[in-house]
Amino acid sequence: MPVAIPNPLGQGIVKIAPFHFGVHDELGVALAVSQRSDFPTKNEMLLLRVAGDAAAIGMQEARVLTAHRRAADELERRVAERTAQLTAANEELSREIVERKRAEDAALVLKDALAFELSTMTRLHELTMRLAGNTELQQTLEEVLDAAIGLHNADFGLVQLCNSDTGGLEVVAQRGFGKEFLDYFRDMRDDTSACGMALQRQACVVVEDVETDPGFAPHRAIAAAAGFRAVQSTPFRDRSNKLLGIISTHFRRPHRPTEHDLRLTDLFARHAAATIENKLAEDERRKLASLVEASPDFIGIASLEGEVQFVNPQGRKLLGLEGDFSGNIFEFVVEADREKLAKQALPAVTRDGHWDGEIHFRHFKTGHAIPMQQRIFFISDAATGRRIALATVSRDVSESKRTEQARQESELRWRAVYENSAVGIWLTDAAGRFVAANRALQDMLGYTEAELQKLGLNDITPEEDWDGARARIDQLRERSIPEYHAQQRYYRKDGCMIWGNTSAALIQSVDNASNLLVEIIEDISARKQTEGALAQAQADLARVTRVTLMGELAASIAHEVNQPLAAVVANASACRRWLAAVPPNTAEASDAADRIIRDAGRASDVISRIRGFLRRGELHKVPLDLEEMIHEVIGFVQDKVNTQLVELHVEIMPGTPRVFADRIQLQQVILNLMLNAIEAMERVAQPRVLRLAVGSHGENTVRVAVSDSGPGIAAAQRPRVFDAFFSTKADGIGMGLAISRSIIEANQGRLWATKNAGRGETFQFVLPTAARRHP
Prior knowledge:
5-stranded antiparallel sheet, alpha+beta, elongated, 6-stranded antiparallel sheet, 20 helices
């Protein structure tokens, strides 16, 4: 039924006719509204109901269609959602498969890495064990090289260490290389080689093929000779990153080591570097300990508070320390120097890091003060610089002080001798210039010291003496002789010449570059004049003696001259007979004339020898043949030998060298000894035996011995037999043996007498050989 309600949209009453849709009115309600009072009429109601039913049918169909659409949409949504879920699940499954594969690959990589690390640690452990067993650095280097060669399966290898002095690399271990290669790379500083590049870059360098690598071109020839085509060089450093050296491996064929091998090589190198550094440090510590233990100096270490911790053996011995010692450094110092240590030395060490000076230690047993030249310093940690101990290296200067005192005393004595000596003393430099001259020398030469310092040795030495003086000085400077003594001539300032008995020696300097020559000169001018007069007197006396001997030998001389003269007369008579013959025999006459000339020459030679023996002349030393000269002397005494019924035996050893002497004087000595021997045997019964023995005596002298079978010399007379004016003969003047000895000594020889085992006496002398005197 319609319902009347106020018009909600305007004035009046409106009627509303509701219509329910659906079989059970479940679809909804439709409202028809009109302002007419008769609304709705039946027809309108019928139409409205028909329309409502039609709407209900449409709505029902729409509702079913919507439900179908919703069901389709839901199904599609669910299918899409399931598809998405399946897709997501599939993607997740794919991701899980990829992740699982990735995990499996990662596991394999991890397994390989673990295997590599295990292999690395095993090899490193094995190398470490081998290195730990080595005590020598060289063995360590060899082990490291063998490990690198084995790792790379290389054909050659070498280890080079850095030389801090040259900055290059020196080969210290190698495998497989010959001398030529090692000489080539003995001191490598060229950065074109693999090791040189590794040194420069301080990183691993690999040359896969030396034939194609442009940087290796300078070394291809030596590489080809050594037989390698590839090389890798790995540097190794110490803990402070300082480069120690290079490990290189070489291959016969082109090759590049894997990253695994290079990493392991680098690990080996680092480990080897640590081992080498430790061994080097240990060697240095061992050397330092040996030096400290063996040092002749006092070496002590104390804490920063001054408590003594160590004293080396020499220091303990020096101070008389026995057993363990614990105490303060002040206990080592004598009481008088403790304030110096506290207020001067230790503050300087704190301020400057060290102190040098002298402090007296005390001997712990005797209390004796020992002067010590000290260097006190801090021992600091090398890495941090932190001071950790106080140390001293001290030297006992007692001996040096005594030496210095002795030197000063010696210098004072030398200065006293130099200034107050009666003989001249001068010092000259290497150029022969005067450096100093004492007062005696200045008086001797007439120059002041300042004037002499402007001169040289040649300025006061006669020109003809220069060569000899220079030769002696050169021998001194060349150390061929320690000193020399000679008689030399010098010019005074006034032009007069003096004779000096000169002794010279070399004063060596520390640097051996400023050596000085010291010469001591004794003025012997007066002595030389006396010696000249004495020599003249001796020569005159010797000549008188020879004349006296000739008087005694007159019969022998007459006999010796008579023989060739008699032969001349006989040959002249024979010549006349050959010429008077008919026909004249000219051939025989010519031979007789030749014999006359020969015999006349013999007579002339005899007269010449006698004149030469008697003549007055200067000493003239020449090489002499003793055999020839002795036979000449025998000619002088032959008549006495015959008349006294003397058996003459001459023994001259073959090959006897010549002597260097004056011929006439030596003849006089031999003649005097032979005449003395003959006269000594006049009062004895036969046999009367006179022996002359000549032969070598030692290496550079010749001995001449004259022996007789006479009564010999009485024991009381033997010490005076060579004295002047002493004679065992009643009518002798006692000068023969004295002159003979002076002649032999003037010729640098020696004359002496010895009693024979049987009867008689032997007078013998030795003279230097001509070869020794004139090489």
